[in-house]
Write a structure and sequence with these properties.
With 220 residues, the protein is α+β, with helices and mostly antiparallel strands. Helices cover 40% and strands 15% of the residues. The longest helix has 22 residues.
Length: 220
Amino acid sequence: MEPKFIPYKRDYIGSDELLSSSKEHYLLMNARRSVREFSTKEIPLEVLENLIKIASTAPSGANKQPWTFCLVTNKEIKSLIRQEAEKEEYESYNGRMPAEWLEDLKYLGTDWRKAFLEDAPALIIVFRKPYDLINGVKKNNYYVSESIGLACGFLLQAIHQIGLVSLTHTPSPMNFLTKVLERPENEKPFLLIPVGYPADDALVPDIKRKELKEVIVHYK
């Protein structure tokens, strides 16, 4: 296939405007938190679909876009997902996770109970696709984990930017999601993201992010 290119342009933005915009965006994103207490207030379907469209603009290896976003708003399915997730989480908190891991989680106040899986009006379950099946033939995808990670990052930012909250939930193992959602063999669960408004009495852990000097290395 011969490469085909189209023109690409963006409006020029001067240094002063870039600085102002970057500061504003940092302040916005620094207010983002993982929330575990959700309002049950519904979110318009088109809003949720737009969020997934935004996630789908992420770059991917060879532009293979190796992802499927399962959007769950059905109450019965959410309830079933909670039941199956709590089975795995109970085992994790009661034997699977080593003592060091449990100690590291203490300040978050988490346990095996996952009410947010039913309370949140929507669950977005992201599946990675190591390969596509085209007419029964396997077609490999590339840099799948990196691509999925980027798409999830786009999604989390978009959720916060439009005024909603989210949580990155990774019940381990997550294979039950493949069965509950009846996904094909070439899709593997990667991340479960509840989306919605925070509950009126929602609380989040009192944590601090690392200072810039702890996360940046300059090469001038």
